[in-house]
Specification:
The complex is a heterodimer of chains A (317) and B (238). Chain A has 317 residues and is an alpha/beta fold. Helices cover 51% and strands 12% of the residues of chain A. In chain A, helix 5 crosses helix 7. In chain B, helix 7 links the parallel strand 4 and strand 5. Classes of the chains: A alpha/beta (317), B mainly alpha (238). Strand 7 of chain A pairs antiparallel with strand 5 of chain B.
Chain lengths: 317, 238
């Protein structure tokens, strides 16, 4: 039925456009007055397009409401993690964790893009950290285009250090590596007796979190180009040695994990706000509207993980 | 242009190359739509660098298709009086067989004066190869004294990309996959409108295109507002 409506609308607009175009061609000199009929056709085209826009808007709003209802009813991770420790809640939490860890594939590196207008970034990082630990995702990147996330590093660190939500998700106090945009790594919840000297640094943590902003994106690529140009000038490198393999080594994730496998875009607009382009190369992308994410960012993340589980990776073959 | 092989299997074609041929026919049709709609720049992902991992038979068939169709598209553009289509082949030409390189150079040469629409055929291409090549070119230019090291910034890198501009407005990926597959990453991350369409490329219809364009139109005001806040230039007229 929906397809039929679309077909009729497209034909109507196409017909009006064709008539309008024919009338336009009949106007000599290009500067003559538009005939009344052409004006009518132009107006009808504009009205038809506005009706289509309105129809799509209504349809999209309905879809979002349905999606939001589903995520509220289903994977309400936030409620499970923020709730009390009653037996019923603990049991549901364990079932949720078992479900997420049983998914046929989970990302090793999850990135979440938050809009610049998010009200409580510290809360968002806490929820995402807890969701990552619940699903046993070892690497988490949270990106905002502006510096809000890096300006809140101290608050984020303080919150994660004491977070009951995070502890509930992990079952005990997890080891967290927190990397801010300026390259500082803070280790939270660390128990030195549990560290093994043979493990790579980033992989000693139960979850490694990076806070990225625009500085990690295009400016980082320009900085790399300047660094390589400087090395070439000093004779440490030849320009012809610069290839994809060299750039890949320089831009490798310092935690030892690869680039993001899954990117969750929390935005109503299906546009990337200058997320680091190099790091998108292997990423699947799931978009979540801000209205559905406001109530349950954890639920939105879990929904994205379920979607990722169904993806077939072919790697060009 | 994803989904040619799955389309071939779905249509019970004898060989997957039949799907790629159907994909080329769809490309020709889509270019006509773009021409009618006044879209002046189109980029298509024809062959990824890691597609060389496919079977020798399929890679050879794709090379044959490219060799033949690049020339066909170029000759068709030249035959039309207004020379509407300029063809550029964006990719690492060192990886291609000589016969395909000749066809690519021919297509670029005979259509270089066309000014109505530019078609960037990404073949063989990866965005990481594109960015690495741009970095190398910048370093070479700095070494040659054409550029000061301190002047290297995003703009100088962007000018040296295989697809330097104009800014990408809409990125469409067919076949229902929801990933970038190393395609136009630099361009896509700058507020391009991204749409994943759940249909195989040879089945991509004007209905699908219309839906994408209408939803982009609806989002355009918000996109331009955000771009202005970010300092990304927006076109003055649409």
């Amino acid at each position: 039925m929906q397809a039929l409506v679309w077909v009729v609308t497209v034909l109507l607009v196409a017909a009006l456009t064709h008539i309008s175009g024919r009338e336009g061609g009949a106007v000599s000199g290009g500067l003559g007055k538009q005939s009344a009929r052409q004006q009518l056709c132009n107006g009808a085209c504009a009205i038809a397009l506005r009706v289509i826009h309105l129809g799509v808007d209504i349809h999209r709003a309905f879809q979002e409401w349905v999606q939001s209802s589903l995520s509220q009813a289903g994977l309400d991770v936030h409620e499970l993690l923020d709730g009390n420790d009653s037996e019923a809640i603990s049991e549901r939490r364990q079932r949720m964790a078992d479900f997420l860890t049983s998914l046929p594939q989970r990302p090793a590196h999850l990135a979440v893009i938050l809009p610049e207008t998010r009200e409580d970034i510290v809360n968002d990082v806490e929820v995402l950290c807890a969701s990552g630990l619940l699903a046993k995702v070892p690497r988490l990147t949270i990106y905002t285009r502006d510096e809000a996330i890096n300006d809140s590093v101290e608050a984020i660190s303080g919150r994660l250090r004491k977070s009951k939500m995070v502890a509930r998700a992990f079952g005990s106090t997890p080891r967290i590596d927190l990397n801010s945009g300026n390259g500082c790594v803070e280790q939270l919840g660390i128990d030195t007796d549990r560290i093994s000297d043979t493990e790579p640094v980033g992989q000693r943590a139960d979850i490694c979190i990076s806070l990225w902003s625009r500085g990690n994106s295009y400016p980082a690529l320009s900085a790399l180009a300047r660094e390589l140009a400087d090395q070439t000038r000093r004779g440490l490198l030849e320009a012809k040695q610069i290839d994809e393999a060299l750039v890949t080594r320089r831009l490798a994730d310092p935690s030892g994990y690869g680039h993001p496998d899954l990117v969750i875009l929390v935005d109503d607009l299906a546009c990337l706000p200058e997320f680091p382009p190099w790091q998108l190369q292997n990423a699947e992308m799931v978009q979540v509207g801000t209205s559905s994410a406001t109530g349950s960012l954890g639920g939105a993340a879990s929904g994205a993980l379920v979607r990722y589980a169904k993806v077939k990776r072919r790697w060009g073959k | 242009m994803d989904g040619n092989r799955r389309y071939a299997r779905k249509s019970h074609m004898e060989k997957v190359s039949g799907g790629h041929f159907a994909g080329f026919k769809k490309l020709s049709t889509v270019l006509e739509w773009c021409k009618e709609l006044g879209i002046s720049n189109v980029s298509v992902f024809a062959f990824a660098i890691n597609n060389f991992n496919r079977s020798d038979e399929e890679v050879s068939a794709l090379m044959d298709l490219a060799q033949e169709k690049l020339v066909e598209l170029a000759d068709r553009s030249v035959a039309e009086n207004n020379r509407y289509l300029r063809i550029r082949v964006a990719g690492n030409m060192d990886l291609l067989p000589e016969r395909v390189v000749r066809s690519a150079k021919y297509a670029e040469e005979v259509t270089k004066d066309a000014n109505m629409m530019t078609l960037n055929v990404c073949f063989p291409y990866s965005a990481t190869d594109e960015i690495s090549s741009a970095i190398r070119k910048v370093v070479e230019d700095a070494e040659a004294g054409e550029l000061d090291v301190s002047a290297i910034d995003e703009t100088t890198l962007e000018k040296r990309l295989m697809i330097p501009g104009p800014d990408l407005d809409i990125l469409v990926r067919t076949s229902g996959e929801i990933r970038f597959s190393n395609y136009m990453l630099w361009q896509s991350a700058k507020m391009a409108y991204i749409q994943f369409v759940d249909v195989y490329w040879p089945e991509f219809s004007f209905f699908h295109m219309f839906k994408v364009l209408v939803s982009w139109q609806m989002a355009l005001k918000s996109i331009n507002k955000r771009k202005a806040q970010m300092g990304i230039p927006t076109p003055k007229t649409r």
